[in-house]
Specification:
twelve-stranded antiparallel sheet, 244 residues, 12 strands, 22% helix, single chain, 3 helices, alpha+beta
């Protein structure tokens, strides 16, 4: 519209000096350039907004699908023998009406009992018991009933969101991505959730990636050293026996 008006005015006022006409045309060009810059800025803001929405996409699969150790009676894991030994995890007491259950992890000559709970807000570790060699229901013990707990998996699975873990909230984890397919030991798992944890070790900062598959739970733990080298330090070999 500005260009049309300028054109009409230039015809009506032929007596205007050529310098003034040129100035008017230059002003019109400058206005057009400003409009283009504004449009470009708006497009950039729109793209950034779309990227933010994509980065914070909420996963439609319920967190309960990824809860580990709850659906089978026996889980066997292969370790790298440096950071993790082979583990044999056995369900001893199935989830009660409050979602509290107990498993025992056998690794070499060591046995550790863990008490977990599935809540509306996520999956929690309530207590752990070293040197556990006599089967005992510890789900309602004082250690499992106090306020000391560690959030393992939040109910809000939004890509890019972070949460604190550990009994003292000393760990920081992030929901990194949902992988359409992931191969472990010749088996393909679909819709695998990756959770990233930053840690500090004597060798420097490291990153641990935890891979969760629906129904099975943890299928791989991956460690990336400060020099960028990545290795699987634990992976699922088998999950057997329905706990339901």
């Amino acid at each position: 519209m500005r260009k049309f008006i300028t054109f009409v005015l230039s015809i009506m006022f032929l007596s205007i000096s050529s310098g003034q006409v040129i100035q008017a045309q230059e002003n019109n060009i400058n206005d057009s350039q400003q409009d283009e810059l504004l449009d470009s800025s708006e497009d950039q803001e729109t793209n950034e907004s779309l990227n933010d929405e994509s980065a914070s996409q909420e996963i439609s699969i319920s967190f309960e699908e990824f809860v580990p150790y709850a659906n089978f009676t026996n889980y066997q894991y292969q370790g790298d023998q440096v950071y993790f030994d082979a583990q044999d995890i056995i369900m001893e007491y199935s989830p009660d009406s409050n979602g509290i259950f107990q498993v025992t992890s056998f690794s070499g000559q060591e046995a550790i009992a863990y008490v977990y709970q599935i809540r509306d807000t996520g999956f929690y570790e309530l207590a752990s018991f070293n040197d556990y060699y006599v089967v005992e229901d510890l789900r309602y013990s004082p250690e499992a009933s106090d306020n000391d707990e560690s959030l393992i998996l939040p109910s809000n699975l939004t890509i890019g969101s972070s949460f604190s873990s550990g009994y003292n909230n000393e760990k920081r984890r992030m929901i990194s991505e949902l992988i359409s397919s992931y191969d472990v030991g010749g088996q393909t798992f679909n819709d695998v959730l990756r959770i990233e944890e930053q840690a500090q070790e004597d060798s420097g900062p490291v990153t641990y990636n935890y891979y969760y598959a629906p129904t099975v739970g943890i299928i791989v733990i991956e460690r990336t050293a400060s020099d960028g080298t990545t290795q699987r330090v634990l992976q699922l070999i088998s999950a057997q026996g329905s706990s339901h």
